[in-house]
Design goal:
The chain is of the alpha/beta class. It has 13 helices and seven strands. The strands form two sheets. It has a five-stranded parallel sheet with strand order 2-1-3-4-5, sandwiched between helices. Helix 3 links the parallel strand 3 and strand 4. Helix 11 packs antiparallel against helix 12. It is flat and about 60 Å long. Bound molecules: iron/sulfur cluster. Iron/sulfur cluster binds next to helix 1 and helix 4.
């Protein structure tokens, strides 16, 4: 890869230079993080000029399987195929950046990790035999070495620009690592815990969202995940026993942490300890099973009754 610089970043991590080949790919995800990149309307032309986007299915029909100078990967590892693909992508990438709560913490789909996998498969799919899925949805770092992570659900697009800029100039990226609380103080947002008596994960969550939820008068859901060294147990105990919220039921406190980054070790430990796992009973899927063609291919709906369209 001729575009890769030979000098490492000050962090000791790889740098890139010239006009790097950039890829954006998805695994198990909703595409929201990719759409956040496309939302950078004022910066998109400059980005396309500075970087060669060789793979970005949401933006271009141009396809590439690598090599990549920088590869952004959205989504968790949820199927055997993805577990194989991420190893190939890692080998094809100079710098691997995982983007979003799915890729960095497992995302919403990782909540199934605490549940009975087969029961879920039968509750969701009428013919689970045709669906390959792993019992646990995991962050990408569980499978391969990751160079950088951008958190959030979705990510903050300007953090992505900052990271690309830092990589091409050989400096350390300036990514925020404080709590959402500090963002509220800077922006003059009234604390929802104190002012409204509502629980909020802001004290233990890494900022990067601009404190959107407290800015709208509701508690933080923890989309950017636990910040390093956060006293998650302390906050949970305070919500359960402290005077401000009047003492919430422990299971309700545990459930607060079972959200977008609920599979991150720090949040999950609180959910488990306080028995906050969702208790929804699972029923088999109500949809009709598909018809099977002689060769074993499933056919759903009208086509199964009328025969294939020509
Ligand atoms: Fe979608 Fe959130 Fe996952 Fe990004 S992190 S792909 S926005 S679910």
């Amino acid at each position: 890869m001729s575009a890769v610089a030979s000098t490492p970043a000050r962090s000791g991590r790889p740098t890139v230079a010239n006009r790097p080949r950039v890829g954006v790919v998805k695994l198990a995800s909703c595409d929201g993080c990719q759409l956040t990149i496309l939302d950078l309307e004022d910066e998109l032309l400059a980005l396309a000029e500075r970087f060669e986007f060789v793979e970005f299915a949401e933006a271009t029909s141009r396809r590439s399987s690598g090599p990549f100078d920088v590869l952004f990967v959205e989504g968790s590892i949820s199927t055997p195929e993805q577990a194989t693909e991420i190893v190939r992508l890692r080998a094809a990438s100079r710098v691997l950046v995982v983007i979003g709560a799915c890729a960095t913490a497992g995302g919403i789909q990782a909540l199934r990790t605490a549940a009975e996998h087969e029961a879920f498969r039968h509750a969701v799919y009428p013919a689970p035999a045709f669906v390959e899925s792993l019992a646990e949805a995991k962050p990408i770092a569980s499978y391969v070495t990751v160079d950088y992570e951008l958190r959030g659900c979705p990510i903050d697009g300007h953090q992505l620009i900052e990271l690309l800029t830092a990589l091409t100039t050989g400096r350390r990226p300036q990514l925020p690592d404080q709590a959402v609380c500090l963002e509220c103080k800077r922006r003059g947002i009234a604390c929802v815990v104190v002012a409204k008596g509502e629980p909020c994960l802001g004290p233990v969550t890494q900022t990067g969202c601009g404190a959107i939820c407290p800015g709208m008068g509701r508690g933080c859901y923890g989309c950017f995940g636990p910040r390093e060294g956060a006293n998650v147990d302390g906050l949970a105990g305070w919500y359960a026993d402290g005077p401000v919220l009047g003492g919430l039921a422990p299971a309700d406190v545990g459930r607060l942490f079972a959200g977008f980054t609920g599979a991150s070790p720090a949040f999950r430990a609180v959910t488990e300890r306080l028995d906050g796992r969702p208790q929804q009973p699972l029923r088999p899927a109500t949809a009709h099973r598909p018809e099977l063609r002689p060769e074993g291919v499933p056919v759903w709906g009208k086509e199964a009754v009328d025969g294939p369209r020509h």
